[in-house]
Amino acid sequence: MKKVLLIITGSIAASRCKEIITLLHNKEVKTCCILTKEAKKYVKIADINKLLKNRIFTDQDEKKNKMLHINLSRDNDMVVVCPATANSIAKFANGYGDNLASNTLLASNKKILFAPAMNSFMWQNKINQKNVRLLKDIGHEFIGPKVGNLKCGEFGLGRIDNSKKIVNRILSRLENINLLKNKKCLVTAGPTIEMIDPIRFISNQSSGKQGYEIASQLVLYGAKVTLISGPTNLDPPPNLKFIQIKSANEMYQKIRKISNIDIGIFTAAVSDFKNKNINKTKIKKNKKLNISLYKNIDILEKIGKSKTQRPKFLVGFAAETGSVNNAKKKLEDKKCDMIVYNKIYSKNKVFGSDYNQISIITKTQIKKFKKMTKVNCAKQIIKQIYNTI
Ligand SMILES: Cc1cc2nc3c(=O)[nH]c(=O)nc-3n(C[C@H](O)[C@H](O)[C@H](O)COP(=O)(O)O)c2cc1C
Fold first, then answer.
1. Distance, CA 234 to ligand 1 centroid (Å)?
2. Less CB within 10 Å around the terminal CB: N or C of the chain?
3. Best substitution site from 35, 85, 88, 119 to test ligand 1's pocket, by max atoms within 8 Å of Cβ?
4. How far away, in angstroms, is 38 Cα from ligand 1 center?
5. Which atom of ligand 1 is nearest to the CA of 38?
6. How far apart are CA 259 and CA 345, in angstroms?
7. What is the set of active-site residues?
8. DSSP string covering 94-133
9. Is 87's C-beta closer than 6 angstroms to any atom of ligand 1?
10. Ligand 1 centre and the CA of 163: distance in Å?
């Protein structure tokens, strides 16, 4: 049985939660809820307790159980903030944790859906819109609000969305959550570095952000993830196996040790060239330096063509200054199932940015996406993978 944590915040629309809980129960989704102090003004605990059988939590409960904000997120499959006030949206967007609801949201490792309800001027207020944009950009989802008569007597955009629509969205997201359950996934990310002497190296500008976002999203879809990363400035994402390497050869050796991979997503920018003989001592700067660079190991091609090592589904990345045709060729040459192509040009400065503009290429189609955050690119890539496998 799937489980949803409903966070009910202080909007008059909070009275709608009874209908939503009933609809979820009819679909065999077990619900528990957090009521903020303000929400208690609009929902009688006794009323929903008949439906929730003591699975109602308030700030008082956190005083008795210090880990409640962690447990509530871990024990449920999804978190739904419904109705979501401008206040709670603002708190979450800005990282505040001053009650059970905001602490649970901050500590959540689950998908979060917001169903906002408020006066239309509140909704359209620029600060509220900025907060909503921030949350969408880091991968959270919103349903509604819609245009209609508002409880305050005004008319406009701010009414909580239709209950059936909200429940259908929750059900469809719950289906997705287990889509990659226990799938063994390998993600490579970041640059590799190839030493010249004990101090210097050659490398590239990859920040690793796209790969780390993909790995984090795969975890949310229930996959068992290993992330092999070159040197980056990023913290390893939680709930996955993290392996750090430096050179392309080290990356290849680590990949070879992992067998029976269901999905391999190779985002790493493996250095195409390496210095054949690493100088044992620091090369003195008064000397003229001539470095002969040799072709490095092509990990994607080696794995793509391997009879024993190839993941069941293999995704390569092509950051190209050239056309999409180069990426299409890579799909065939390296025996991939999918290539994510990003054209590097002045309007798509991918390296280090939180944004990316990608095209997803499979044997049968090319899908072009608008510029979006790397989190949302990660979601699209994963969606295309499970639509194809
Ligand atoms: C009668 C009344 C109705 C309210 N309705 C809403 C609402 O629909 N949406 C909203 O964002 N805020 C609404 N507010 C303001 C919130 O209740 C207020 O910002 C509160 O601090 C929210 O707390 P919470 O986010 O912790 O639940 C309303 C306030 C009052 C007095």
1. 37
2. N
3. 85
4. 7
5. 27
6. 37
7. 152
8. TT---SHHHHHHHH--SEEEEEE---HHHHH-HHHHHHHH
9. yes
10. 19
Contact call for residues 257 and 179 (beta carbons, < 8 A): no
**Ligand 1 mutation pick, 7, 9, 11, 17, max ligand atoms within 8 A of CB:** 11
- Count of alpha carbons within 13 angstroms of residue 305, beta-carbon side: 8
Q: Which of 156, 79, 91 is nearest to 117 (CA)?
A: 156
Backbone dihedral region for residue 260 (phi beyond 0: left; psi -120 to 50: alpha; all else: beta):
left
> Is the CB–ligand 1 distance for residue 38 below 6 Å?
yes
Q: How far apart are CA 291 and CA 230, in angstroms?
A: 23
**CB 342 less than 6 A from any atom of ligand 1:** no
Q: Whose CA is nearest to atom 19 of ligand 1?
A: 87
CB contact burial 13-33 (16+ within 10 A = b; e otherwise): bbebbbebbebbeeeebebbb
Q: Please report, for residues 50, 130, 148, 211, the alpha-carbon distance to residue 341 in angstroms, rounded to integers and kept in the order given.
A: 53, 30, 42, 14
Q: Which two tokens stand for residue 90?
A: 């603002």
pTM: 0.80
Q: Please identify which residue in the block is written with the tokens 């949803």.
A: 4
CB-CB contact of 146 with 162 (8 Å): yes
pLDDT digits (tens, 9 = 90+) for 40-80: 999 999 989 999 988 999 999 998 999 999 999 999 999 99
Where b means 16+ CB within 10 Å and e means fewer, 241-252 reads eebebbbbbbbb
Measured CA to CA, the distance from residue 212 to residue 226 in angstroms comes to 11
Please state, in angstroms and as integers, the Cα–Cα distance from residue 27 to each residue in 30, 74, 111, 210, 256, following that order.
9, 21, 19, 36, 44
Give the residue whose CA is nearest to atom 17 of ligand 1. Answer: 10
Give per-residue pLDDT as tens, 222-278: 899 999 999 999 989 988 999 999 999 999 999 999 999 999 999 999 999 998 888
Give, as one character, the DSSP assignment of residue 207. -
- What is the set of domains in the chain, with CATH numbers? 3-177 (3.40.50.1950), 184-388 (3.40.50.10300)
Residue closest by Cα to atom 22 of ligand 1: 10
